[in-house]
Amino acid sequence: MKGIVVSGWLAAGVCGAVGGCAAHDAQSKAAVPTGSWKGSVVAFDLGSDGRVSYKDPGIAEFTGRWEWLPTTQAEGTLVLTPSAPSSANPLQFPIRWLSKNALRFCDANGHCDTLSRR
Fold first, then answer.
1. What CATH number does residue 79 fall under?
2. Which helix (H) or strand (E) holds 17?
3. Residues contacting 90, CB < 8 A, separation 6+
4. Is residue 39 part of a domain?
5. Which has the closest alpha carbon to 60: 94, 95, 32, 89?
6. Number of structural domains, the chain?
7. Does residue 4 surpass a pLDDT of 80?
8. What is the pTM of this model?
């Protein structure tokens, strides 16, 4: 019995330290990252009207629509759909909130950038 109590306490401590566990409140999801964001390479503007302007110099630059798919309290997937008919495939980017003014943004190739609100 003593081992069960210690295990439960340890699990609660670890879950709190890392920002939550799967059993956490399902209603608590990551906030929508609207606004202007800029990293060392990538920059984008997410309007509250669902419009996006995305810039990754030398790779991609476009306008279009965005959608936010939260997965946990601190993470979600940003889905960008370019307006150009030739670019009909949506792009998906995992996002992890670092603070209310900073997030970690990764592309499909695993390149990541820390972005700050502008």
1. 2.40.128
2. helix 2-17
3. 79, 80, 81
4. yes
5. 89
6. 1
7. no
8. 0.74
